Predict the structure.
Amino acid sequence: MTWDDKFKDDGKTFAFGTSIITLDPVSKKLICHNFGYDGKVYWTGKGVVELKDKVLHFDMEENTINKTNTKYQSTRRKSNRNTTIVNIKNLVQNGKKIGDLKETKMTRVPLKKKAAGN
């Protein structure tokens, strides 16, 4: 899955990320690998994913280029075909408890097809 976050007023991208979920053949668990940037801060992460009652549950750890370590749990559930609801809980950055974040909605936007030769 790939996403970008855009400013509401001008539509310019300020953050971009990709998550790849694979099945680990040894542990037989779903593993998530993330990478992206937020402004000028690049980050990468990894975690374990479980599917329970049509909801994805993530237990994640991420690190940034400026040495910020972040751990959290999140859930992702579809509210309809084009909308995913994301909840992030138990956020800890560099050992400091931040808590839970406000629920966010991710809306699928169809990619614009380019004309041949462009």
